[in-house]
Amino acid sequence: MAETFKAILVSRDEEKKQSLARVEMSPDELMEGDTLVRVSHSTLNYKDALAVTGKGPVIRRWPMIPGIDLAGEVVSCESGAFAPGEPVVLNGWGLGETHYGAYAGMARVKADWLIRRPQSLSASETMAIGTAGYTAMLAVMALERHQITAERGAIVVTGASGGVGSVAIALLARLGYEVIAATGRPQEADYLKDLGAAEIIARQELAEPGKPLGKERWAGGIDAVGSVTLANVLAQTQYGGAVAACGLAGGMDLPTTVAPFILRGVSLLGIDSVMAPKAIREEAWARLARDLDRDKLKAMTSTIGFEDIETAAADLLANKIRGRTVIAIDG
To answer: pTM (2 decimals)?
Structure first.
C-alpha cells in the first residue's frame, strides 16, 4: 500500500465560497516537481492566515494546500541536487498560492526552490524564523547595502510585535542599532524591550494622515504595514535615509508625495522574499544563523500542532498573536 500523509486542502465552490478539509493524500496526488520532501515543520505567516481563513486573495489555484514555508528532509531528488535525508528549507516560490504548500506531510517541489538548512539551526528554529524572519533579514541587508549603519541613527520598525517586526528588532539590536518599535499593542512593551527595542511609540502616531515632510526622527525603517504608516515613516526619515518596505498589513496604497525623495534624498527599498534569487536566500539564511539571538528567537516563538492551524490563523488576523508560530506537522 502506498504511503499516505495528512494534509489541509482548501477548496471553493462555484459561488467562490471557501471550505477547508483535512484529508489523507498520497505522493502521487502532489503537484509536479523533481524533489520529494518529508515535511516536519511549517509556520504561520500573515499570508498563511489569509489563505486559511479566506480573508485575502492569496490562493490562485484551486484546490490548494496552504503553507508558504517548510522545513524537512529530502526523500528523493531526480536532479541529484540533494541527497536523500538531507535537511532543507523552502520559503515562497508560490508555495501555498499556486503550488501545493507546506500544510501536509509531504511536498513535491523544484530542487531550485530549496536551500540546505544551516547546520546550526534546527528544523523548528528555521520555521520560528520562517518567511517573516527571512524577510526581516532581507530588509536589514537592504539597509546595510544602502549604508544605513548603526552610527547613522535609529531605525523604526512598524508592526513591531508581529513576525517580521519581532525578528527585525532582535536582529537590529544584535547588530548595534538603536531601535524604535511602533506598535498598536502597548501591553507588549516589555516584550519588545526584551527583544532589544530602545523606545516604544504608539502605532497611532503613524496611522493618521500627516504632513508631506515631518520632523526628522530616524535614519531608516523597516515597514510591514504600508499605506499611511509607510507614508509617515518616509516623511520623518532623516536626510539620505532609507526605508525597507516588506508588508501591507495596513493596506496596499501609499498616500505620500515626492517630498521625502526629492527634498531629503530618502530611498524606498522594496523587499521581495517570494522570488529572491538563491544566492541572496543563502546569504540571508547564513546571516540569520549567525546574527539572530537564539534566546530571543525562543522568547518570540510558540508552537502549535497540525490540528490548531485554523484557530491560530483566525487569532493572528485578530491581532491576538505576537511573534512567531511554529507548526509541528509531524508532531
So the answer is: 0.94
